[in-house]
Write a structure and sequence with these properties.
The protein has 333 residues and is of the alpha/beta class. The chain is built from twelve helices and ten strands.
C-alpha cells in the first residue's frame, strides 16, 4: 500500500480507502464486516470512511466495533453529516444544531474521542454557509475533529466556502469526496482545477462505477444473481444508469487492456482514478475479505500514458463529463 497527503494538509491517507456505505449494518452481517475491516488494516489500508446516515447509523456502530482495540493513531477515521438520521425536523442538514449533535452521536457510535476528517455530505441550501463553517471550526477547536471536507459540492459552493473561511480565520477545507470513475468524470473541468489550486484533495467514491467497470455485467445478458444491480439495498437504483448495452459494450473493451497490464478490470479502474494527481485516495467497499485484498493491489500501479489513452478512447462515447451533474438537494430531504 502506498500513501498520499490529503490535499495540502500534513495528514497522509492510504491510496485505497475502505468505505462501508452499502455493506456494514445492512448488506453484510456484522461479523463478516469486521473481518473485512481487519483485512483492510492487514493489507495497509489505514483510511476508513463512513457516514452517520449509512444503514440508518448502524454502519458507524459496526465500524466502531471493528476498530475496538486497534491503536487509534494507526488509522484515519472519516465520517459525514447532512442526510436524515431521525424523524425530527432538525435531524438533517448542516445547521449548527444538527452538526454538533450529529458529531457527538458519531463519536459515541464509533467509540472514539475524535474524528480525523468530518465532511459535509452535501451542500445545505437551507442553512447560511457561515453558520455551517462556524460549527465545523468550533468542532476543530474543541478537539473533536482534526480536518474538514465536503462531498458532492460544485466549484461555486467550494469557492464561496473558502472565501468565508479565509475572511473569518476558520480552518479551511482539505478534502472533497465526489463520485469519480473512468465513466463519471464530472469533476474534471471545474472542481479538480479549483481544488488543486486551493490545496484540496479528492477522496473519490465509486471508482469502479458501482461495479460496472469490473466487467461482470455483460451486454444483452441477465445480471449475476446477488449482484448490486439486483439488490435495492445495495445501490440498484444508482447502478441502473450504467446498465445499458452501449455502456456495457464499451466497458468490455477494457478487458484486453487490463490483461495486457496484468490487472483485473477492477484494479485497472482504480489505478485509472489514482492516475489523477489531485486524487488523494479511492474508496472501495467489499462484502468479503478476498475483495479487499484484490482491490488493494491497485495501489502503486502506474499506468502508462498510452494505457490511459486507450481506456479513455474505449469509453469516450459513454462518459459523463457535465459539471452540472454535481448537485445537492434544493431542500433538505
Amino acid at each position: 500500500m502506498e500513501y498520499r497527503r490529503l490535499g495540502s494538509s500534513g495528514m497522509y491517507v492510504s491510496e485505497i480507502s475502505y468505505g462501508n456505505w452499502i455493506t456494514h449494518g445492512s448488506q453484510v452481517e456484522s461479523e463478516a464486516a469486521i473481518k473485512c475491516v481487519r483485512t483492510a488494516l492487514d493489507v495497509g489500508i489505514t483510511t476508513l470512511d463512513t457516514a452517520d446516515v449509512y444503514a440508518g447509523t448502524k454502519a458507524e456502530s459496526v465500524l466502531g466495533k471493528a476498530l475496538k482495540g486497534v491503536r487509534r493513531e494507526s488509522y484515519e477515521l472519516f465520517t459525514k453529516v447532512y442526510w436524515p438520521t431521525g424523524e425530527g425536523k432538525n435531524d438533517r442538514g448542516l445547521s449548527r444544531k444538527h452538526i454538533i449533535e450529529s458529531c457527538n452521536a458519531s463519536l459515541k457510535r464509533l467509540q472514539t474521542d475524535h474524528i480525523d476528517l468530518y465532511q459535509a455530505h452535501r451542500f445545505d441550501n437551507e442553512t447560511p454557509l457561515e453558520e455551517t463553517l462556524s460549527a465545523f471550526d468550533d468542532l476543530i477547536r474543541a478537539g473533536k475533529v482534526h480536518y474538514i471536507g465536503f462531498s458532492e459540492w460544485n466549484a461555486q459552493q467550494i469557492a464561496a466556502a473558502l472565501k468565508i473561511q479565509d475572511a473569518r480565520g476558520y480552518t479551511r477545507f482539505v478534502s472533497s469526496q465526489p463520485q469519480y470513475s473512468a465513466l463519471w468524470r464530472v469533476i474534471e473541468s471545474e472542481v479538480v482545477p479549483l481544488s488543486a489550486k486551493e490545496g484540496i484533495g479528492q477522496i473519490v467514491w465509486s471508482p469502479m462505477a458501482q461495479g460496472v467497470l469490473t466487467g461482470k455485467y455483460l451486454p444483452g445478458k441477465k445480471v449475476p444473481a446477488g449482484s448490486r444491480a439486483t439488490d435495492k439495498k445495495s445501490g440498484a437504483g444508482m447502478i441502473s444508469r450504467w446498465m445499458k448495452d452501449d455502456v456495457l459494450t464499451a466497458v468490455q473493451k477494457l478487458a484486453p487492456i487490463a490483461e495486457k497490464n496484468g490487472l483485473t478490470m477492477g484494479q485497472l479502474s482504480i489505478a485509472w482514478v489514482l492516475a489523477n494527481p489531485n486524487v488523494s485516495s479511492a474508496i472501495m467497499g467489499a462484502t468479503k475479505p478476498s475483495q479487499v485484498k484484490e482491490n488493494a493491489k491497485a495501489s502503486g500501479v502506474k499506468l502508462s500514458p498510452a494505457t490511459i489513452a486507450a481506456i479513455n478512447k474505449a469509453l469516450a462515447a459513454v462518459v459523463e463529463k457535465n459539471p452540472q451533474e454535481t448537485k445537492s438537494p434544493l431542500t433538505r430531504p
